[in-house]
């Protein structure tokens, strides 16, 4: 077995072992290695390993089953490895990154949400509002944007968020409740 054939086999075996470790353990510890704050999508560990594995497999198979010269086999193996890594990015990684959903949210995302007052909001104080989110229902401190009291059970709209306090106003169809007070 020649030096290049040994390199092909090592690349293939290491790639297969990495894939098995990722399958069994889920997290292989290489996520984010080598690129710090720079976002280089094509240099993700899974793509690098798939390219190296394809390089090893192609090189080994072309060495064994063709009469090509070593430089031709090595060049073809490199092209196949790069092509597979690029194809994996566009066919698998990129679509999956767009499909990811999160149940988390930030306070800024509460603007425009409709909620229900769970604790009466006094004119110049804080009450509590229940807001339904993707992750479930959440309770937040709330104040009246217009400085008027808002009764428990009223529907409100979050107009803005400052210092982790929701500033709310009555939901338009509930304006009759505001006038009754």
From TrEMBL:
<keyword id="KW-0472">Membrane</keyword>
<dbReference type="InterPro" id="IPR058653">
    <property type="entry name" value="NfeD2_TM"/>
</dbReference>
<feature type="transmembrane region" description="Helical">
    <location>
        <begin position="6"/>
        <end position="30"/>
    </location>
</feature>
<dbReference type="InterPro" id="IPR012340">
    <property type="entry name" value="NA-bd_OB-fold"/>
</dbReference>
<protein>
    <submittedName>
        <fullName>NfeD family protein</fullName>
    </submittedName>
</protein>
<keyword id="KW-0812">Transmembrane</keyword>
<feature type="transmembrane region" description="Helical">
    <location>
        <begin position="42"/>
        <end position="62"/>
    </location>
</feature>
<keyword id="KW-1133">Transmembrane helix</keyword>
<feature type="domain" description="Membrane protein NfeD2 N-terminal transmembrane">
    <location>
        <begin position="4"/>
        <end position="101"/>
    </location>
</feature>
<feature type="transmembrane region" description="Helical">
    <location>
        <begin position="68"/>
        <end position="92"/>
    </location>
</feature>
<dbReference type="Pfam" id="PF25842">
    <property type="entry name" value="NfeD_TM"/>
</dbReference>
């Amino acid at each position: 077995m020649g030096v290049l054939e040994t390199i092909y086999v090592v690349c293939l075996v290491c790639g297969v072992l990495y894939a098995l470790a990722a399958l069994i353990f889920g997290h292989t510890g290489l996520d984010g290695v080598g690129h710090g704050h720079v976002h280089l999508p094509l240099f993700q560990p899974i793509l690098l390993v798939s390219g190296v594995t394809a390089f090893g497999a192609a090189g080994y198979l072309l060495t064994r089953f063709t009469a090509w010269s070593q430089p031709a086999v090595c060049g073809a193996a490199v092209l196949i490895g790069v092509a597979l890594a690029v194809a994996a990015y566009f066919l698998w990684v990129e679509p999956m990154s767009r499909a990811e959903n999160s149940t988390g949210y930030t306070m800024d995302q509460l603007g425009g949400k409709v909620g229900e007052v769970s604790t009466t909001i006094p004119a110049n104080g804080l009450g509590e509002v229940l807001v339904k989110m993707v992750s479930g229902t959440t309770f937040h401190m709330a104040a009246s944007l217009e400085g008027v009291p808002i009764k428990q059970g009223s529907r409100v709209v979050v107009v803005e968020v400052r210092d982790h306090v929701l500033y709310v106003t009555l939901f338009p169809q509930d304006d009759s409740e505001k006038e009754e007070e």
